[in-house]
Design brief:
4-stranded parallel beta sheet; cobalt; globular; binds the ligand O=C(O)C(=O)C[C@@H](O)[C@H](O)[C@H](O)COP(=O)(O)O; amino-acid biosynthesis; alpha/beta; 3-dehydroquinate synthase; binds nicotinamide-adenine-dinucleotide
Length: 352
Amino acid sequence: MEKVDICTASKNYSVYIGPDIIHLLSNSLAEYTKVMIITDETVSELHIGKIIEQFPELIVYTTPSGEKAKTFQIYEDCLSFALKHGLDRKSVILAFGGGAVGDLAGFVAATYMRGIPFIQIPTTILAHDSAVGGKVAINHSLGKNMVGAFYQPEMVIYDTNFLHSLPERQVRSGFAEVIKHGLIADPIFLQELMENLSSLNHLNNIQLSNYLKKGIEIKSAFVSKDEKETGIRAYLNFGHTLGHAIEAKADFGKLTHGESVMCGMVYALILSNNILGLTFDIQSFIQWIEKLGYKWRIPSYMEFDTLYELMKRDKKSTSGKPAFVLLKEIGKPMMMEVEKSLLEDTFYKLSE
Ligand SMILES: NC(=O)c1ccc[n+]([C@@H]2O[C@H](COP(=O)([O-])OP(=O)(O)OC[C@H]3O[C@@H](n4cnc5c(N)ncnc54)[C@H](O)[C@@H]3O)[C@@H](O)[C@H]2O)c1
Ligand SMILES: O=C(O)C(=O)C[C@@H](O)[C@H](O)[C@H](O)COP(=O)(O)O
Ligand SMILES: [Zn+2]
């Protein structure tokens, strides 16, 4: 088992990573009055048995799968469910699922009775990112993650056995954030990925644990210095200005988070080359991600003007202009507002 310690201004906690570690929960739950688990329909069907057999007294709330979990309606329903089952301030919420469940459950925990503890039990590759760092949120029809909080979990139990049932599309989606971590912080890690990884279908447990651990360590370095995104934490948003706009335009769910962020990262790489003279070989990068099965062109049914309005509303924007994380070099990010004309030109180069 691997362990990464996360130190933030508000809380220190550990992320445990490895196969067969779900039993770690037993020691952690004794202190709580009630335990409510929030999961989704898919994860429930596949894996909830492994938790229930250890803790038959759990109170289970099941959301629709995917982004449909991150709505006001489901959020309110979770709160009602918790109230009806008598959760109090010494109760705990378990987030058992991918990033959607984690973001929802964390926001429920952050706001129920002004905040009760929660534990992340991620089940997707993407959740190496979402389960760490304490960003919790639901979506608004006008934008992604627009209602949320910074609220850290008590611990993260990342049992990699749960990952074996992930469909290929979700493996690819999650791996986009691993690649993001390489691009923003670690040229050597990125190079290692580009040289050694020609398919996402045959990742063995050791490779996977190593990549996830590396991603978590990179994320941890940003979060520990800037928990509430007053500065460098925003670099973790590389690819997300356009990515979140694409997700919103795809009705929150037709494209996955990782698919959308991959389009956004290619867009941000081209902008970085145009504005900052980034010398990275973007064509080789594109060939590599295509080999891994990623689509990187902006879907043809998306119009620039709609995406531009969404990008202007992004949380990083403070002056009404879209703000982007760009790269001076691989591993050297910076934040910039970008002019509409350049955004539009680049959009047409990358549109399908
Ligand atoms: N809080 C953060 O810092 C942060 C970081 C990155 C992403 N996010 C958010 O995370 C969400 C994306 O996370 P995600 O990709 O995990 O999505 P997700 O939670 O929607 O899961 C993707 C799909 O995989 C299914 N699934 C989950 N675990 C499975 C398993 N073990 N086997 C088979 N199927 C499984 C789910 O039911 C769902 O249909 C987005 O809402 C994004 O905004 C948050
Ligand atoms: O943890 C962060 O900070 C990130 O930006 C990680 C992102 O991968 C993640 O998608 C996050 O939820 C985006 O946050 P937002 O503030 O842009 O909603
Ligand atoms: Zn993300």
